[in-house]
Design goal:
Oligomer: single chain
Largest sheet: none
Number of domains: 2
Order of helices and strands: HHHHHHH
Structural class: mainly alpha
Amino acid sequence: MLNAALFYFFAALAVVSAIAMVTRRNIVHAAVFLITALLATAGIFLQLQAQFLFVVQIILYVGGIMVLFIFVIMLVNLDVSLHLVQFNRQRFVAGVLAVILGVQVLGAFWVGRGSLKLGAARAMEPKNTEAVGQALFQQYMLPFEIASILLLVAMIGAVVMAKRRV
């Protein structure tokens, strides 16, 4: 009973904060709502006993990526973006596209209603962190190294671009 209540709490918090993130005009408020959605997702991971994913979600996404987002938000000149052309005149088109997307999603659920059989939720093995490490450094070593090199190049590029502006 408590597990279901916690899941519904975290799920509702994630959905509400994601909707609030998309609808905010202030970019800093949107970033705070994104942090809230990421924390709620981490809570769901912890409830599923996926401790490794919980820690990665907190440290990597909430801690690292969101700090990077906040730095970019603070570095961007917001006065220039306020004077740019606003897209508020396209609400009708956005509303029609949202309704079409909603109908498509509901249609997909309706068509696949009998084909998706979900079993009872199982907790992951106690050694899930060890299993992730083994898979990451044995089967997926090359993609892992390529991703790390790409992140290093992106970091160096960001530093070079920031130095040119200053």
